[in-house]
Design goal:
The protein is mostly helical and 150 residues long. The protein is 71% helix and 10% strand.
């Protein structure tokens, strides 16, 4: 990972160096009074350097991982420490944008298993249980929602 970042900074530095040298070359030719006799004409220099800059920028953007990606990988790692039912419930909550009714979970897992898993998750501080009519609404904790961007 560090080698990628160093390589990307080297690529950006090389681009800045090329732009600087090209600009200096064109400026010297203009000061001499013969801007049209440059080896590389100004009319080609600007679009070429712009395209090169766009390419390098997109390359850097592609290779630098997003912080959200890192958070999701870390969260998925922590999901491995949960029991099967707990993990399944958390995944269902995430799929439903951070909230789901207990009845909907019960249809998949069963009432008793759902109740026990929800209580364990609540004690671990991962979810909140809120009364919602005759059933309960299960909400992912605010901190976890912020990390996942939900």
């Amino acid at each position: 990972m560090k080698k990628k970042i160093i390589g990307l900074f080297a690529l950006i530095s090389a681009f800045v160096f090329i732009v600087s040298i090209s600009t200096l070359y064109v400026q010297i030719e203009i000061l001499k009074g013969n801007p049209l006799t440059c080896t590389f004409p100004v009319t080609l220099l600007i679009p070429t350097l712009s395209s090169l800059g766009l390419f390098i920028g997109l390359t850097v953007y592609y290779f630098i991982p997003s912080p959200k990606e890192k958070c999701e990988k870390l969260f998925n790692f922590f999901l491995n420490f949960l029991e099967n039912e707990e993990r399944e419930i958390v995944k269902m909550i995430i799929e439903n944008r951070g909230e789901i009714s207990q009845a909907k979970i019960s249809r998949k897992i069963g009432k008793v298993k759902t109740f026990r898993a929800i209580e364990k998750l609540r004690k671990k501080g991962m979810i909140e249980k809120v009364k919602y009519g005759k059933t309960n609404k299960i909400l992912l904790k605010k901190e976890i929602r912020e990390v996942l961007g939900i």
